[in-house]
Design a protein that fits this description.
mainly alpha; 62% helix; 0% strand; elongated
Length: 63
């Protein structure tokens, strides 16, 4: 039983870590969204907020 729980926790942790890495790489390096993500925040430019609400990245800021 404990082995199953340990494996479940390990798999969940790896999934979260992989998701975090993928999220950081979706922004252009040095862009406003990238800088905000590295600071643990979200970019507050109106164009970026609108794109994030649609599940996309801002084409203007992440060329």
């Amino acid at each position: 039983m404990k082995l199953t729980q340990i494996l479940a926790i390990a798999v969940a942790s790896l999934a979260l870590a992989a998701g975090g890495i993928a999220a950081e790489k979706k922004y252009k390096a040095g862009g406003c969204c990238d800088k905000a993500a590295k600071a643990g925040e979200k970019c507050e430019h109106p164009c970026c907020v609108k794109a994030e609400a649609e599940g996309k990245v801002c084409a203007k800021c992440n060329k």
